[in-house]
Amino acid sequence: MPEPLLSVNNLITEFETDEGRVRAVDDISFSVEAGETLGIVGESGCGKSVTALSIMRLLPQPMGQIMGGEIKLQGEDLTRLDLPRMGKIRGNDIGMVFQEPMTALNPVHTIGRQLAEVLFLHKNINKEQALRESIEMLDKVGIPSPDVRMGEYPHQLSGGMRQRVVIAIALACQPKLLIADEPTTALDVTIQAQILELIKDLQNDMGMSVILITHDLAVIAETSQSVVVMYAGKVAEKGSVFDVFDNPTHPYTQGLLSSIPRLETEPKSVLSTIDGMVPGLLDLPVGCRFENRCAYHKQDCTKASPQIEQVSGAHQVSCFEWRNVKQELQSSG
Amino acid sequence: MADNQDRNSPILQIRDLKMHFPVKEGILLRTGKYNKAVDGVSLDIQPGETLGLVGESGCGKSTLGRCVTRLYKPTAGQIVFEGKDITRIGGKKIKPYRQDMQMIFQDPMESLNARHTVGDIIQEPLVVQQIGDKVSREKRVKELLDIVGLPARSVTRYPFEFSGGQRQRIGIARAIALNPKLIVCDEPVSALDVSIQSQILNLLIELQKEFDLSYLFIAHDLAVVKHISDRIAIMYLGKIVEISGGERVYREAKHPYTQSLISAIPVPDPHHKAHRQVLTGDVPSPINPPSGCSFHTRCPQAMTRQCSSQQPNLIPLAEAAGDHQVSCHLYS
Q: Which strand ranges, in their side-by-side order, compose the sheet holding A64-73?
């Protein structure tokens, strides 16, 4: 079996806050194969964005720190690199797309300048070549009359167009990995469809891997091959999209999947809910973090944190009661 | 108020409503153009009904909601609430109508005063309308907290002490405090996480049954709207392009815009193969909308000159006995 492009092993990321140290990501592991799309899904505060920032080494300084574990990109541990070396990897080997394209772009620089900057930094080319490649890249991401757009400022473009520019910048150096953190959350559905299609096409074209971070399970189902479900800083469940969507084995994944209103559900029927709230990161329980909201909880669940266990193949879950959960799902059809 | 209204007449009638905002230009800030946010909308809402209003950002759906509750003064057209024309009523005269018409907003953090306690926030409509005394109001607040599923001790707390979902419950308690008949819900769940979203949707449906409320439910998420609505209106660039029963809009969408909107929604099932009609381009500006059918610039089925020159009317489809209306030259 070929080595994965990226493997994150036992990553721990902490933040120093006024109220104390907060462990935003607690001992998570996953890997991304070459050419695949991995979806990371979870609700606000589950640590999905912090995971992305840890991989990019872009944690807010000095509050955010990687406290343990390793992030291996083709065998090289990113957590041990010095900043100049990491700077070479960012943009060149790993590209990143953020949620809000208006804040990701610099409002006082033209599109062309921001795009050419990446090429200048990472490639040994002259100004004309950089400009030419920038225009090609804008064309590739589907921006009409790219040569005109080069001289325009971000505010002159629509939200969808801005996100295309951000994607063009992220992919300018043909990275091996693209991290997209909620790339379509700020966009309308018809524009979301355009952007997801674009990422898929570019991926086929350039053969890169993608980590797609979102709160929307439907977006994952549509784009990803593998999925990691996160809850309160930990991995609740992971596996192929078919494993996780067809046989959700963590009560949280089950709850998430059954609480989405779908187009085919009976109107005004009662939606299933997950009662209660995510525990605060400042006072996490000793046991399982989902215990207080879980329909399957037993006494033992409060005593220790469950380890991740194999269900089958690549399908893994971190729940003491997963065998019961699975059985119930099968018997209910 | 008008109790002589019979049960079968609509609680709200909107006729050819227009809301044009002036756009200031140049150094002298002269008004040259108008942003036609709502441009000729007609709708009815029946008592106890939920009308869903769906569209992309900038289509005018929130503006329409704000015209209905008269937070805006419409440029033209008519809003009739329980048989009374409220389009031009201003100042203090609108106050009695606000008792029957309330609003729930998208971001509960911004729509709740951070310096007031939850008790004060929920009580405020009662104070403004001068209903009851201190004791009876406090009793009512406790009752309302119980209805929306918040503990009674919340009264003395402040909004920041609550999570997003709980804050939305506070907003809902305030909206139902006066026993309104119509609530305009403007994207009430789009800022919430999935597991919380379903809790709030369930609460809204439950309240409707219990208090016989009518909703104008504004959202961009068609799956959410379809779940809660009896009928759905699809809005594009200030106009209604299609309106019908919720199930019909989904299964027998006629307008090319509705069709592509439905096909653009991702489905939470990895086995589902999307047959997607990806729309090209962006929504045009409502300041300078396209001639003819406002959708013709993005329409995959735009036909002849008719689409770019002549504006289609919202007309009932013969096959659906008036329940399904569409505004497209393909069906006229």
A: A20-32, A6-17, A64-73, A76-77
